[in-house]
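Reopening closed ticket. The problem is back. First fold of the pair:
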Amino acid sequence: MSDSDDILLDIAPSAFRRALALISLLVLGGVLIALAFGDVPDLWRLFFVGLGAFVLWSCSHLYRSTGDGLQLTPAGLRTRSGRMLVAAENIDRVERGVFAFKPSNGFLVRLKTPEDRGWAPGLWWKFGRRLGVGGTLSGGQTRAMADLMAAMVVERG
């Protein structure tokens, strides 16, 4: 096993957090579609059905993405399924502050060079030079991962 295959930290959403997020989206989607069958003008009916369908689609996407997890290795941050989110060499700094634009219970990674956009609801999002990690993940686990990543950046110099 090489150093790049050593897993420093492995995190995933708990079953409770995952279920809570999914139930919340299912209820919201159901309420929006139910509103469409109330006494509303046709344009609002179309809006509520469209928005409800989008929320239910988002729920299915959340279900698939939260079935995965994140792994921090010396090579960088990747998903359990093997997708490399950011290589260790491309990490500029890690932000966990109150005013950082980050997901709930998570942290923000500033990248040296921009990368392709991506999004896994409840786990991570990547846009330009920013990678946000969090959502359905435990705050304690993401704090530990952010600290390890920050230590990696400092160690790398």
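Second fold of the pair, where the issue appears:
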Amino acid sequence: MVNWVLRGAVLLWAVFFFMIGARGVIDPTSYTDTFGFTISGVAINTLRADLSSFFLVSAGAAALGALVPTWVRALLVPAALFGTALTGRLIGVAMGDPTNFGIIQGMIVEALSVLLLVGSWWVLSRPVAASAATDPAG
């Protein structure tokens, strides 16, 4: 039962971030409202490519890890990406970068994402107990 709940939670997470990434490919200016920065000139192409790929790869790896039991380690890919982003934000805050509610919200989302993905990997990668293996609901 816990495995199905975790798989469902990770799939919902993946769908959410897939939508953010797909929207960014189609309309990179959507990131300006979501993340609170402005872009101009050729930077829009870099934003379309780099930020969208971050979300799309994260979503794809999370979905793969949730749907294919032998690929549960794929959950560590988005965990590493979001953990690296969180680390970068923490370094920025420590070095005096300006912060606002959006930065704090991003850090919370990144931390919760890492917890969800690493926790799901941990639980889903453990061998199924003998009693749970015979229980169809387990």
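Update: turned out to be a display glitch only; the data is intact. The chain has six helices and no strands. The chain has a mean pLDDT of 91. Please close again.
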